[in-house]
């Protein structure tokens, strides 16, 4: 399918410049009302959709949670269509300083006193140095990722799923993923699995506590099974959870990165970064960006795979097995084999499109400029905050057609790959790369690679599986309920158990 050109790509702006609809209401009270609508009375999608309907526009003014007393200024201009959303990537127009988590910023006491890379604007000198350090780290470990994924992730995952299914009839994918992905990241980035190098125990749990403190203002309906919603709102969205709660765990995490990251510190020195700043940054990139990312993304990927059923599973298994037979090594995955798996690649992009793991992007206008939705143009003034809810932008039917809100596994196969420039999960088009001059995710290629590895390994090992999916604090909660092992794997398991 040929991509539809967006109005802004066709010609110079011809649309009439209108006032941005919407208003911020009464200070203090309206931001709280918006917060309650968003978390409890309407929910995310209905909150935005009701405002789109009310104003007849995908660009409008609104308050964004958490609001009082967590965020001093909740006022944003929402950009919810595929034409206006990309302004958030244009660092010539917008500043991305301290907006990683949105209208509030967690205390730097949680990051050793440093503003880590994710909060830095490219105009700040430390941004280029730290992002370069992460690029150097990832490049130096590129050959380690596939073997680390197999030994530290896939093998552990299958053993855990098989044993949980045998003992209790269902396997909590999120719990297994949380436990093994931290080890996998340590192995992939530093060649040192936390659970095997004498690091303090329970690092994944400690990382989760530290993450939760930073993300609590964005979460909801976690304790509403036990407590009324207004108590939860007070606990999560009104005042920050004190940072001392995470302090002992952070110390243990820091100690692990200090010993595991020695090669990185040498590179940091050459870039003019202190060992300490580098260590807090690799801790954040691994424990927040990477571990937090996989906590959300992998369950979502497995959820969509499970829902697609045996027809898609058979195609994925056939593709993975044929590619490994043609370009694998001793029946194992290689990069060359992975490159042959076009459907698997498309499935990964489609999940990232339909359900971007990070749903929000924020930025401040650096100057006055005009933005365009599909039907109108709007004047933005210097200093105003722009906000994008990505699932609306990447499910825009103008770009993705009438099935934009459907999961279409082969959407990006063949000619469909032209639509990849509208896949924005990494805070930039999938067809572009992160650089030290932009704010696109430093781990973009790593994320796509490991997701393709997960799908390929799953269908090398299993013919099919079933799962039940619900929601968790951070996204999907998935329980695997049955698996059918690939014949060769089932036979190998039988042989080893009869020995
Ligand atoms: C599923 C996994 C991941 C998702 C969904 C994700 C998503 C994102 C998004 C949306 C941003 C931009 C946020 C903003 O400024 O508005 C970002 C930035 C960033 N991500 Fe990722 N990320 C993931 C994994 C990773 C990994 C594995 C790394 C490892 C290095 C990483 C490192 C970073 C860094 C350093 C930034 C800040 C970039 C900059 O300041 O220029 N992320 N990520």
From TrEMBL:
The keyword Electron transport is annotated on this UniProt entry: no
Signal sequence annotation: none
Annotated keywords: Heme, Iron, Lyase, Metal-binding
Pfam assignment, any one: p450
Keyword set includes Ubl conjugation: no
Pathway: Lipid metabolism; oxylipin biosynthesis
GO molecular function, one term: iron ion binding
GO BP terms in the entry: carboxylic acid metabolic process; sterol metabolic process
Family: Belongs to the cytochrome P450 family.
Name of the protein: Allene oxide synthase 2
Source organism: Platanthera zijinensis
Taxonomy of the source species: Eukaryota, Viridiplantae, Streptophyta, Embryophyta, Tracheophyta
């Amino acid at each position: 399918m040929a991509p539809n050109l967006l109005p802004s790509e066709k010609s110079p702006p011809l649309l009439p410049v209108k006032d941005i609809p919407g208003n911020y209401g009464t200070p203090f009270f309206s931001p709280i009302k918006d917060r309650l609508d968003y978390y409890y009375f309407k929910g995310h999608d209905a909150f935005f959709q009701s405002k789109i309907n009310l104003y007849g526009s995908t660009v409008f003014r609104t308050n964004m949670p958490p609001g009082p007393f967590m965020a001093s200024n909740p006022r944003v201009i929402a950009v919810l269509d595929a034409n206006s959303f990309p302004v958030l990537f244009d660092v010539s127009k917008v500043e991305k300083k301290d907006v990683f988590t949105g209208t509030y910023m967690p205390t730097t006491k949680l990051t050793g006193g440093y503003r880590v890379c994710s909060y830095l604007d490219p105009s700040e000198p430390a941004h280029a140095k730290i992002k370069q350090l992460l690029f150097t780290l990832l490049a130096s470990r590129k050959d380690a990722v596939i073997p680390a994924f197999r030994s530290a992730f896939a093998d552990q995952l299958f053993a855990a799923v098989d044993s949980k299914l045998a003992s209790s009839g269902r396997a909590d994918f999120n719990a297994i993923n949380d436990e093994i992905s931290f080890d996998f990241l340590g192995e992939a980035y530093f060649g040192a699995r936390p659970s095997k190098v004498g690091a303090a125990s329970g690092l994944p749990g400690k990382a989760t506590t530290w993450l939760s403190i930073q993300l609590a203002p964005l979460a909801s309906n976690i304790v509403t099974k036990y407590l009324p919603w207004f108590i939860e709102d007070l606990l999560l969205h009104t005042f920050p959870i004190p940072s001392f709660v995470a302090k002992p765990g952070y110390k243990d995490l820091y100690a692990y990165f200090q010993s595991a990251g020695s090669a990185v510190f040498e590179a940091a020195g050459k870039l003019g970064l202190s060992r300490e700043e580098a260590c807090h940054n690799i801790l954040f990139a691994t424990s927040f960006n990477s571990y937090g990312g996989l906590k959300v993304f992998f369950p979502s990927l497995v959820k969509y795979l499970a829902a697609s059923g045996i027809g898609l599973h058979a195609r994925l298994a056939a593709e993975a097995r044929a590619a490994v037979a043609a370009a694998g090594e001793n029946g194992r995955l290689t990069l060359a084999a992975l490159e042959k798996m076009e459907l698997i690649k498309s499935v990964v992009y489609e999940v990232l499109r339909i359900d971007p793991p990070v749903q929000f992007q924020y930025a401040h206008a650096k100057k006055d400029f005009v933005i365009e939705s599909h039907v109108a143009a709007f004047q933005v003034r210097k200093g105003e905050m722009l906000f994008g809810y990505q699932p609306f932008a990447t499910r825009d039917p103008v770009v993705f057609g009438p099935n934009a809100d459907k999961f279409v596994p082969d959407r990006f196969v063949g000619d469909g790959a032209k639509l990849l420039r509208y896949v924005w999960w990494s805070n930039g088009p999938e067809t572009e790369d992160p650089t030290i001059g932009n704010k696109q995710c430093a781990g973009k290629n790593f994320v796509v690679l490991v997701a393709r590895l997960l799908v390929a390994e799953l269908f090398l090992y299993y013919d099919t599986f079933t799962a039940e999916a619900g929601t968790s604090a951070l996204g999907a909660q998935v329980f695997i309920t049955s698996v059918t092992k690939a014949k060769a794997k089932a036979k190998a398991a039988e042989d080893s158990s009869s020995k």
